[in-house]
Amino acid sequence: MTVKVDKNIEQVVEEAESTDSPAENDDAAEIPETRVPVAPAPPAPRKSSSLIGWLALLLVLALAGGGAWYLQDTKQREAALLQRLSEIELAASREDDRLEQAGQRWESQLQQGLAALREESEGQAEVALALEEELSAVRSELSRFSANDRESWLLAEAEYLLRLANQRLIMASDTESAAALLASADGVLRELDDVSLHPVRAAVASDIAAVRAVPKIDLEGIYLRLAALAEQAANLVIFEFPDQESATRESTADTWQARFEQGYEEALVKLSDYIIIRRRDVPMQALMDPQWEGLVRQNLRMLLEQAQVALLSSNQDLYEASLERASRWVEEFFQSDEAAARAMDREIRQLADLQVAVSLPDISGSLSALDGVIESRLQQGGAE
């Protein structure tokens, strides 16, 4: 259909040219042309045929230019597409190479890991085999244990408990822990149910009774009472001048003689602020320099703390000596605050009368008896 339209357009153009310039038609007639017969165009007016011809020519030129531009653009796009395709192929090739290298590297690492895992598995298998052999040896040893071996373990446990009870009583004076350990040892001996251990159990019972007979001392209560006294020592008044109230009188004198007498009296009152007369029933002692008051209080506090240390170490002599010196310091230096000083002195004397050291019993008899039984059994086992 397009071919027919193009040829019709060419025929119209030729007719327009032959109408305008006959000379040109004669020249053109000399050139042989091969034409395809087309349908006759409808007759057109003479004036409009030239315009139509030019329009057709312009249309043909526009179509030819558009076709050429389209062909050129198509070629450029094809070339760009081919270049892009080549770049994609090159990038794909590089990516394939990189993936191949990574795959080789991963495969190598995997092989190394598998080899290390196999070696580790082999080592663990050897360790497991060694542990199994050791466990078999232990089982064989345990299978040879008898009732006598169990009794030996229980006797060793009872001996350990008795030895620990002696240490707690001697080193820490802890009668409650010592009694508990002795009772535990007696329970182990009772579990053995052996008639030959009757003397040992009798010795244990005797030691338990001796420990429980020791008088209990409230160490915590005595310690706290001494701490309270040490805190009170900082509040006692060592020596204090009484406050003098100066009475000021208004000047009511009118004459110079009256004013002179009033000034004289005020001067005497002023001097009385510097000169104090005090009557005491006890012998007068030299006044203490105020800078030594802190030292006196600190010394009293140290004596009370020394008594605390003696209490914890069950040192009766040091305990009594410390409290006796503290009582003397209170009587000698704290006379201005008599009520508080007397209360502190009374509390110190009550604490000094307490017994903080007790005689501890000897509970080594039960341990010696059990050691004798164990030694005799070992000798019998060696003889057999």
Kindly summarize this structure in a few lines.
The protein is 75% helix and 0% strand. The radius of gyration is 64 Å and the shape is flat.
Describe this entry's structure for a reader.
This protein has 12 helices and no strands. With 384 residues, the protein is mostly helical. The longest helix is centred in the N-terminal third of the chain and has 98 residues. The protein is flat. It folds into 3 domains: 96 residues, no CATH class; 91 residues; 98 residues. Helix 1 packs across helix 2.
Quaternary arrangement of the chains shown?
A: single chain
Q: Provide the succession of SSEs.
A: HHHHHHHHHHHH
> Largest beta sheet, briefly?
none
Q: How large is the share of residues in beta strands?
A: under 5%
Relative helix content: over 70%
User: Radius of gyration over alpha carbons?
Assistant: 64 Å
Poorly predicted spans: 1-7, 19-41, 241-249, 282-287
Taking the alpha carbons of the first and last residues, their distance comes to 133 Å
Mean pLDDT: 75
Return the domain count. 3
Which structural category do the helix and sheet elements fall into? Answer: mainly alpha
Number of helices: 12
Strands, total number: 0
Give the overall shape: flat
